[in-house]
TrEMBL record, chain A:
Keywords: Mitochondrion, Ribonucleoprotein, Ribosomal protein. GO terms for cellular component: mitochondrion; ribonucleoprotein complex; ribosome. This is Large ribosomal subunit protein mL50. Coiled coil: none annotated. InterPro entries: Ribosomal_m50. It is found in: Mitochondrion. Residues 1-100, 378-397 are annotated as: Disordered. Residues 20-35, 74-84 have a biased composition (Polar residues). Its main location: mitochondrion. The keyword Transmembrane helix does not apply.
Automatic annotation (TrEMBL), chain B:
Keywords: Mitochondrion, Ribonucleoprotein, Ribosomal protein. It comes from the Eukaryota. GO terms for molecular function: structural constituent of ribosome. It comes from Anthostomella pinea. Belongs to the mitochondrion-specific ribosomal protein mL43 family. The keyword Mitochondrion applies. Its main location: mitochondrion. This is Large ribosomal subunit protein mL43. GO terms for biological process: mitochondrial translation. GO terms for cellular component: mitochondrial large ribosomal subunit. SUPFAM superfamilies: Thioredoxin-like.
């Protein structure tokens, strides 16, 4: 979603905007120089051997992508993965040099192409061109350049949406409650503009703070929070220092103590059901809540459903709804166990082919033997072209 | 003592002593994505469990056939089979087709143009010109 991605302040590198913008232009010709021989070629005139490969430095960093997982909130990672998710702590924001000249050192571009002198342009009279490949030295080429990582982890891409979706209903409920509390706290503090801004993901502490608060809801759907909201409001202030702290590597003690379903159940006992009646009619407030839920859990509420969300209960119902099964067999396995358990019904998950039918009969072993005897492929057609027999019959090869 | 063959008392007929359903197996093919399979998918989800449990003598094989229309195929104990394409039908229409396949004998459909058919031999026998006393003209 384009609209959401504009919010993504943590993505890319926290370099000055001017520096990152200016990096796009110089990078393009270099990229073309890597793969085309026509541009930026310097032919040494004095020797027939290519000069030693030199490493060029890019003026500034561009935008790098990484396959590394980006964070889901540390406090919510219990239901999804057992390993601590490589979060922004691996991105190591503290190491980001503010000076663009330092950024030049992070990225090592591939070696520059060099070209040998043409045989007819060699000045050395004793030179005779080689007639065979044997004994020649191999020069140039990228080698295994792509296999090595030539950039720092600082440049790793961090998306607004977490890579893993939270599916545990209890964790989802805690996240929704957290989003509502945070959005309302901002509104109560008079920071209306920050409702549509980007907030730090936070960690376990932030989640615990919101879970401990008592949220009540009036008849008209306006919530009221009993407790100190100043800490929550302060935690929602985005700046680079906060981001660095939030993404700093958690201490081992914190790593081991993420919230489990039981912990949330304990908190949930203290919650009254009234908080679910909080009104979400105000589109600004609703956007703040749904945006936060997307950031924390990876659940994006579709646009066509947004208008139907009047209160938190509806939103919670939407978010907690289990995903649709992809295939009919999946659905039957999940929901229609009575059909699966009937002795006279067999359900195949994939298409039943001719080979499957032969195997069911026990005839495939014989077919396999005969095929092997004739040195024919057992699986597939062995790369035979279509209508080959017809071609041969008609005198073709 | 001379050997005498057992005399046939009656002609065996399905349903006189025991009834054996002629349909032994039913293949149910559907597609997960095509709109023409919507009714078939609903049939599998909602009707098939009841239909299969009331007919334990029929084997039901459900399997996907991607990018194809849904098909019901009945296999019969005489070795023949009968297929019905059930594209765009709703689940109740498909249930009717499944009942049709269940009730079919597997025989080829023939035109029935005699009011009465019988498997009992005629008492009079078939007329022959070489037997009898002949007729004086």
């Amino acid at each position: 979603m384009r609209r959401i991605s504009r919010l993504r302040r943590p993505s890319g590198l926290p370099v000055p905007a001017a520096a990152s913008r200016s990096s796009i232009a110089p990078q393009c010709p270099q990229a073309t120089a890597l793969f085309s021989s026509s541009s930026q070629t310097t032919i040494p005139s004095s020797s027939r051997r290519p000069t030693s490969t030199t490493l060029r430095q890019l003026p500034t960093l561009g935008r790098f992508y990484s396959s590394e997982k980006d964070p889901i909130p540390q406090s919510l990672s219990e239901g999804t993965t057992s390993e601590p998710i490589p979060t922004a702590d691996e991105a190591n924001w503290e190491d980001v040099p503010a000076d663009p000249s330092q950024l030049q050192q992070i990225y090592v571009p591939p070696p520059k192409y060099t070209y040998a002198t043409r045989p007819d342009e060699v000045s050395d009279p004793s030179y005779t061109p080689a007639a065979t490949f044997d004994g020649l030295e191999t020069v140039g080429g990228l080698g295994n350049w792509w296999d090595q990582q030539h950039w720092s982890k600082v440049g790793n891409f961090m998306g607004f949406k977490p890579r893993t979706k939270v599916t545990n209903p209890l964790l989802l409920e805690a996240s929704v409650r957290r989003a509502v509390v945070e959005a309302f706290a901002l509104r109560q503090a008079g920071r209306e503009d920050d409702l549509t801004g980007v907030w730090p993901v936070g960690g376990q502490e932030e989640l615990q703070r919101t879970m401990e608060l008592d949220v009540q809801c009036a008849e008209d759907g306006v919530p009221s929070i009993n407790g100190d909201i100043s800490a929550i409001v302060d935690g929602l202030q985005w700046n680079d220092e906060v981001a660095t702290e939030a993404s700093a590597p958690p201490s081992p003690a914190v790593k081991g103590s993420v919230f489990s379903s039981e912990d949330i159940l304990k908190f949930k006992e203290a919650w009254t059901g009234r908080w679910k009646y909080t009104s979400l009619v105000d589109p600004r407030f609703r956007f703040a809540v749904t945006k936060r839920i997307f950031q924390l859990t990876g659940h994006l509420v579709p646009d066509h459903q947004l208008s139907g969300i009047a209160d938190v209960q509806t939103l919670l119902h939407l978010v907690q709804k289990p995903p649709k099964p992809n295939t009919l067999t999946e659905e039957i396995q999940k929901r229609r166990q009575d059909l699966v358990q009937l002795p006279n019904v067999s359900i195949a998950t994939k298409r039943v082919t001719r080979g499957d039918k032969e195997k069911a009969l026990g005839r495939f072993k014989l077919i396999e033997e005969e095929l092997k005897k004739r040195d024919l492929p057992v699986q597939g057609h062995g790369g035979a072209r279509k209508n080959r027999e017809m071609q041969i019959l008609q005198g073709g090869m | 003592m001379t050997i005498r063959a057992l005399e046939k008392v009656s002609v065996g007929q399905n349903g006189v002593g025991a009834f054996i359903l002629q349909c032994k197996r039913m293949d149910i093919h559907y597609c997960d994505y095509s709109g023409s399979s919507r009714g078939m998918n609903a049939f599998i989800k909602s009707q098939l469990a009841k239909f299969a449990s009331t007919h334990p003598q029929i084997e039901f094989a459900v399997s996907p056939r991607p990018r194809k229309h849904p098909v019901l195929t009945g296999h019969y104990i005489n070795g023949k089979h009968k297929s019905i394409c059930v594209k765009n039908m709703d689940s109740l229409q498909i249930l009717k087709k499944a009942e049709l396949l269940r009730d079919a004998s597997g025989e080829k459909i023939r035109k029935v143009n005699k009011p009465i058919t019988s498997i009992t031999e005629s008492v009079r026998g078939v007329w022959s010109p070489y037997h009898g006393k002949g007729m004086a003209v």
